[in-house]
Write a structure and sequence with these properties.
single chain, four-stranded antiparallel β-sheet, 44% helix
Amino acid sequence: MAERLTVDEIDTALAALQGWRYEEEALLKDVPITPDSYGWLSEAVMNEANALDHHPEIERTGDGVRFRLWTHSSGGVTAKDVELAARIDQVLSGAARDRG
């Protein structure tokens, strides 16, 4: 089982993860997207998640998508969640460049 991070460790990780926040024992990020972007974005994120053997929650919101990361077996945030958050940010950066 992965070791749960302390609040201080989470705060340190969040300093490097733009737009992410810690709420209800999870890392959360809301991203505005166009409705037609949801499919390819969720697929790209799931490819990254599968590479880490991790399972994020991806939820459609009124104007975008919300990512919620936590490690179920640890009951909170672990290093695996921080790694997946960074990979999601890389996917989002690539998507922004492709549209440019």
